[in-house]
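Write out this protein's structure.
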Amino acid sequence: MSSVTVTSLDERVGQGEAARGRVPLFGHGVWVAPDGRPDPVVLLGEQNATREADLVPVRHGRMLVSPFTFYRGAAKIMAADLASTPTAGLTVQLCGDAHLSNFGLFASPERALVFDLNDFDETLPGPFEYDVKRMAASFMIAAEHNGFSASEARDVTVTAVQAYREAMLDFAQMRTMDIWYARRSEDDFVAHVEAAARDQKGKPQKAAARDAAKSVKKGVRKARTRDSLHALAKLTEVVDGAYRIVSTPPVLIPARDLELPPGLASPAGGRDFVREQFDAYRTTLQDDRRHLLERFEIVDIARKVVGVGSVGTRAFIALLQGRDQGDPLFLQVKEASASVLEEHLPKSRYRQPGERVVQGQRLMQAASDIFLGWTTGVQENRYYYWRQLRDMKMSADVEAMGPLLMTLYARECGWTLARAHARSGDPVAMAAYLGADDDFDRAVTAFARDYADQNLRDYSTFADAVRTGRLAAVEGV
């Protein structure tokens, strides 16, 4: 992504105002499928070509659960659709898949819980509208999936977009370093929910607000328990006095039970491969973190199925041990490929997709995992990024949200996405473009309403493909 070249505030404001002249805000409010729109099933099939064949039906099964889970796995489809929508020419580092389930709590390096974006597989520089529309449509689809009324779904969605716009107006007034250090702590998160609970009028509303506050506090407490010791208890067994990862196929298969490529099948070959990958990964870390990691050794490794859209890409977990068996560290090793956005936007400046993911994450997050790094796999055109498996990570239970809690969550997601964009883009120009009125909020909400219908049609096409045998699906995994 090119650096910002305009320096004066007046010039930056002028850039945003000029963009509004080229692309009026109301222009974001329309979604009409273009002529020759690709078959969504074909697009999914293109992604499946490089995935683990035995896991592709699992991916389809997870996407088949509902239009909402389908949407979570349909980043490639929406990337193609967004390419035909108007953009103002204001570039940021995109998450690339900013749906509401890709926000959550996790631990900062200082061991404080923060709320932030947490998935960057598709990150790439591009038009800020792409992330905002992906987020907005996800709230509309999730609200409808949860049985909200049309007005409730609209209110939730407009709240997310309004929070984004108003936050960007605030960031435009802030000093550069203050933007860089801005974050949503667990205390901020809880305080906002409690304040909303106090503001509710009427017994039913106050009761719903109290329930929402309890749910948030429970989630925060649970997040604090999700660490490597917790993973050790859930994911391992003791055999001959040593911990090893349990086998629960197809979701979790230890390396000892996997079919390995030629040359790696022997124990010596497998150990050498893991050691070479671990050593290569450590070179991508800062010296102090590399030194810290040298105090651990790899004990076991396993393939693990993760997420919805990611199912079928290669993903592993590694159990490491420090001073003794009571000092575990779990790392996740996840395959990175070209972003789905690279078919429609300039290619990443990073040749290694794993580095693209890591550098994008560091740029967008207020605080990132200290063990973020990347490697090139032993097989041709296979790339990976590494991070901690569980570091107090917690995602929201979207399907359990009522209108009030989802509205509060939408507000936090909108603010968080704006902060991520303000770090990498020009908040002054974007604020000048978005303006102080609600034109942008209403336009993007209208887009989300129409795109939710498009997603439902695509889901129906996908479900028909499964029913007729065009696609294989394994449900319940």
